[in-house]
Amino acid sequence: MATSSNLKQLLTLALTLLAVATKSSTCTPSPTRVKAIYYLDNPTFPPSSIDTSLFTHIFYAFVVPNNITYKLEIQQQQGSSSKATSFTTFTNTCKTKPSPITTLISIGGANSNSSLFAFIASNSTARATFINSSIEVARAYGFNGIDFDWEFPQTAKEMNDLGDLFLQWRNAISDEAISTRRPPLLLTAAVYFAAGLFLSGEPRMYPVDSINKNLDWINVMSYDLHGAWNNVTGAPSGMFDPRSNVSVVSGLFSWIQSGLLPEKLVMGMPLYGKTWKLQDPGKHGVGAPSVGPGPGVDGGMAYFQVLNFNKQTGTKVVHDKQTGSVYSYNESYWIGYEDLFTVSIKIGFAQALKLRGYFFWVAGLDTSDWEISTQASKAWKLV
Ligand SMILES: *[C@@H]1O[C@H](CO)[C@@H](O)[C@H](O)[C@H]1NC(C)=O
Ligand SMILES: *[C@@H]1O[C@H](CO)[C@@H](O)[C@H](O)[C@H]1NC(C)=O
Ligand SMILES: *[C@@H]1O[C@H](CO)[C@@H](O)[C@H](O)[C@H]1NC(C)=O
Ligand SMILES: *[C@@H]1O[C@H](CO)[C@@H](O)[C@H](O)[C@H]1NC(C)=O
Ligand SMILES: *[C@@H]1O[C@H](CO)[C@@H](O)[C@H](O)[C@H]1NC(C)=O
Ligand SMILES: *[C@@H]1O[C@H](CO)[C@@H](O)[C@H](O)[C@H]1NC(C)=O
Ligand SMILES: *[C@@H]1O[C@H](CO)[C@@H](O)[C@H](O)[C@H]1NC(C)=O
Questions:
Q1: Does 179 fall in a domain?
Q2: Cross-strand bridge partners of residue 39
Q3: Which atom of ligand 5 is nearest to the CA of 230?
Q4: Pocket, ligand 5, Cβ cutoff 6 A
Q5: Local structure of 101: helix, strand or coil
Q6: Predicted confidence band of residue 297 (pLDDT cuts 50, 70, 90)
Q7: Does some domain include residue 289?
Q8: What is the set of active-site residues?
Q9: Could you tell me which InterPro entries the record lists for this protein (predicted)?
Q10: pTM of the prediction?
Q11: Does the Cβ of 168 fall within 6 Å of ligand 2?
Q12: Which of 8, 121, 138, 287 could serve as 161's disulfide partner, Cβ 3.0–4.6 Å?
């Protein structure tokens, strides 16, 4: 367990930042806060299982455009017409919950075709077709907004094209809202943990001006920062990293330094841990040598499964001050994850930076009584 002095230092940091933020606050009304979660279409976890009282927004993941027509051909998506049924069930369930929740349809995802998005973004005719289809589908199935998850633009030109896409999208959404006299659809995007991609390929910056002008906000994927591919253990969503700038805080600072308005920033947190197989049972700190992923699908383990791992005799849980993260290990395996404490600290930090809110990836990985999600929602309310 963490020593009380570790905890105290982290809390002091969070509270100091909070005090600074409160002093500089003005009387302008803040935009609606965001407490969001993604939902992966999944028969074993139907939309009715979601405790909507804990969230303000929910993202339905995912849908992808057809690679020839550039439209969201809902009838032809995998699982055929069941996709349409799944949308309708989702939006109707979310609307009729005791706590209704705003729904967005998320386009793309980590496994979607990045070159297809590159082509669509580069060509104004293809952009128009794609945008038109996204608005038609969002309206037809009762979503309140559209989220774009392109992982990731590969070049500076593709980043520029992404900015053009956002502008054209915003104009189409505004025109549609005026002509139908309905509130405009929300437009958001899921983005890299930092404002620039710098770890591989051509260095490239997101189109920050276009994001400020055209998007309601961005979901910053402040996670998956370290994994078994590093060959050493590391905090997958650590606040700090003494060895590099690959950390949640560096990433969020890079967005703010690049000129992105804090109210456009929503911080992502994982409801899962990443696992490593230790090379030497005697070396089990952050940065310990490892030999590939540990248990779980691709070295990923749901939070509720991490709790089961932690219950085994011989497992130790450590709150690490240097990375602002929690990990647990036994003689064979090491898991970096988020717990009630790290989530509370992150939310204090996000509020100190005046961010718009937070989101989780993904529904179904918390405990059955939504322990982490509840803690996050309570922590944000304290101020
Ligand atoms: C379009 O996608 C389908 C399904 O993934 C694939 O089989 C096909 O080769 C793709 N066609 C083009 C032109 O990219
Ligand atoms: C991805 O999209 C590109 C550009 O449209 C296309 O050439 C390629 O075949 C697509 N790949 C798949 C797997 O569909
Ligand atoms: C843009 O896409 C359209 C089809 O959507 C195609 O007819 C046109 O040739 C493309 N333009 C360029 C410059 O690739
Ligand atoms: C999409 O295109 C169709 C056909 O041109 C048009 O009737 C419709 O109004 C467009 N929808 C939006 C949201 O722009
Ligand atoms: C991890 O180890 C593999 C196999 O030895 C090696 O190919 C790879 O470059 C290493 N990765 C890093 C980040 O050091
Ligand atoms: C991290 O450092 C590299 C190299 O100095 C720089 O290119 C990159 O933008 C920095 N990233 C962040 C998130 O600070
Ligand atoms: C470590 O945890 C794994 C996964 O739960 C378990 O199979 C293994 O027996 C544990 N090892 C030790 C030495 O406790």
A1: yes
A2: 60
A3: 13
A4: 230-231
A5: coil
A6: very high
A7: no
A8: 151
A9: Chitinase_II/V-like_cat, Chitinase_insertion_sf, GH, Glyco_hydro18_cat, Glyco_hydro_18_chit_AS, Glycosyl_Hydrlase_18
A10: 0.93
A11: no
A12: 121
